[in-house]
Amino acid sequence: MNPPVHAPADHPPIAKPRIGVLLMNLGTPDGADAKSVKRYLGEFLSDRRVVEIPAIAWQPILRGIILNTRPKKSAHAYQQVWREDGSPLAAFTRAQATRLKDAFGPGVLVDWAMRYGNPAIAERLQAMKDAGCERILLAPLYPQYCAATTATANDKAFAHLATMRWQPAIRTLPPYHDNAAYIGALKTSIEQSLARLDFEPETLIASFHGMPKRTLALGDPYHCHCQKTARLLAEAMGRPVTIAFQSRFGPARWLGPATDETLVALAQAGTRKVAIAAPGFSADCLETLEELAIRGRESFEQAGGTHFAYLPCLNDEDVGIDMLRNILSRELEGWVRLP
Questions:
Q1: pLDDT (tens digit, 9 = 90+) per residue, 258-273?
Q2: Angstrom distance (rounded) from CA 129 to CA 121
Q3: Distance, C-alpha 68 to centroid of its chain
Q4: Confidence band (pLDDT; 50, 70, 90) for 3?
Q5: How far apart (Å, rounded) are the C-alpha atoms in residues 328 and 137?
Q6: Which helix (H) or strand (E) holds 329?
Q7: If 220 and its partner were Cys, which of 102, 140, 215, 261 is the partner (CB 3.0–4.6 Å)?
Q8: Is the pLDDT confidence value at 2 over 90?
């Protein structure tokens, strides 16, 4: 038997090899005040993946008009949904990471980060490497692939990798828009929420975040992924699902039909009871809790609707955590021996 090999006395400490899983979501301001929102929007709207206008034309508009007018309005919206523990999106993403902490064995570290704001992707990626993670699964929590979400989150991680002398091995979570575990989790969650209502919706709407229409022509699969998710969900539930797209911004033509216009049109056509879900969001956030649950209800009721329900995202509920454990386990195969 060969004698054990010991490192020299002056050798820097090396952490025990581990594997990391980094959950990544869009981001959120640090607070619901205008100053925090301005800082967040400045980072978000400066991303060339998000606004595909040459910087020389866009930045004067952003710095001269948008960041001097929009933060106050957006801060008011954030204040409507802010929790004692902060932003809903941050709270739910943190809870998801906490619940998955021991899901893959003692040798796997699960952490979370935001593309914009805190905790930053570069910071948490470096922390994982410092903790001994020699293999890391980057997990953008966007079921449907889009360059403005999935790609930019991965970009941020890759940019930090470019600064590292000793890089960990990297895998990225692919889109899971048609994954059976995801569709099944949506079905279960939506049916549980519907069962708790005191009315039967005449229409079920699936609202996805909008994107400029030109992204489809440029080859982004997002629109197709959303359509397939809605179709598979309708088939699984055995009922029609009306698809719509929310959160339009600026004068560009966006994917449609628009959620706000759909709600008004339904009410004006005689539909009185609707329920709306947001299957493209892995966790509730400003766009679901304020734009849909508050402003969506107002639009529908002002147009003549009488019963409106927003159905929560998967968040950190058991069905959502089981789904994440399932799809992440698949991507960890070969790195981790799981039961």
A1: 999 999 999 999 999 9
A2: 12
A3: 27
A4: low
A5: 8
A6: helix 318-332
A7: 215
A8: no
* Strand residues in 6-63 grouped as ranges (E): 18-28
- Residue 136, SS3? strand
Give Cβ neighbours of residue 122 (< 8 Å, ≥ 6 apart).
156, 157, 159, 160
Q: Express as a percent the part of the chain with pLDDT over 70.
A: 96
The predicted structure's pLDDT at residue 252: 81
Query: Where are the extended beta strands (E) located within the chain?
Result: 18-28, 108-117, 133-140, 169-172, 203-209, 242-246, 273-277, 307-310
Residue 94 amino acid letter: R
What Rg, from alpha-carbon coordinates, does the chain have? 22
- In this structure, what token pair is assigned to residue 333? 């195969």
pTM: 0.94
Tokens of 17: 């090899």
- DSSP helix/strand/coil, 23: strand
Give residue-wise pLDDT tens across range 292-315.
999 999 999 999 999 999 999 999
Tens digit of each residue's pLDDT (9 = 90 or more) over 107-148: 999 999 999 999 999 999 999 999 999 999 999 999 999 999
The C-alpha torsion from 250 through 253 and 259 to 263, rounded to 10°, is 100
What is the Cα–Cα distance from 306 to 266, expressed in whole angstroms?
12
Answer left, alpha or beta for residue 4, where phi above 0 means left and psi between -120 and 50 means alpha. beta
Burial call 260-297: b when 16+ CB within 10 Å, e when fewer: bebbbebbeeebbbbbbbbbbbbbbbbbbbbbbbebbb
| Distance from the first to the final alpha carbon of the chain | 33
- The encoded tokens of residue 304 equal 């003549």
